[in-house]
Design goal:
- By secondary structure, this protein is of the alpha+beta class.
- The strands form three sheets. Strands 2-3-1-6-7-8 form a six-stranded antiparallel β-sheet, with helices on one face.
- The longest helix is centred in the first third of the chain and has 19 residues.
- Helix content is 22%, strand content 32%.
């Protein structure tokens, strides 16, 4: 789940951001998603589920970086579907941050991807995340790519986006 938690401006700000987010998503036509406001939180929030591309493309997983090739099986034919891969997610994060920047929104934004432990930070207050990286490690002889979940140096500096 993708969460946008509005820190300042209350429900009115959340409603403006939600309206604009839906309008931009429809106009740009790159992504589809289930977008709705949360009513069970202390701070007004927007939740986004099932983010997909509008046009299917070859897909091998949402891992960061280049595709890993198993030396025993060689390159495999990729399935074609609408799931987002690493670069697609970065574009979606930038899209969400542009919407929030439009209204100078103070919001914390994160997702909880299944292949990362904890929150993947996209925005903190008025600072959008601008750098995305990962580290390579080895587990039981297998190369594993671990996402950087958002260290402070990966966010835009300064008070205004």
């Amino acid at each position: 789940m993708y969460t946008i938690q509005i820190l300042k401006g209350g429900v009115a700000k959340r409603n403006r951001v939600l309206s604009y987010l839906l309008m931009r998503m429809a106009k740009e036509g790159k992504f589809t998603a289930n977008v709705f406001h949360a009513t069970d939180k202390r701070l007004p929030s927007i939740h986004i589920k099932l983010v997909r591309l509008t046009k299917a493309k070859p897909y091998c997983g949402q891992h960061p970086g280049e595709c890993l090739i198993n030396p025993f099986f060689g390159p495999q034919k990729k399935q074609v579907n609408k799931y987002l891969e690493w670069e697609d997610w970065i574009k979606f994060h930038a899209f969400v941050n542009r919407v929030l920047n439009r209204f100078r929104t103070h919001a914390d934004v994160w997702s909880n991807p299944p292949d990362a432990k904890g929150k993947m930070w996209i925005r903190k207050g008025v600072k959008p995340r601008i750098n995305w990286d990962w580290t390579d490690t080895w587990v039981s002889g297998q190369r594993v790519q671990l996402w950087n979940q958002g260290t402070i140096d990966q966010f835009m500096s300064g008070a205004n986006p």
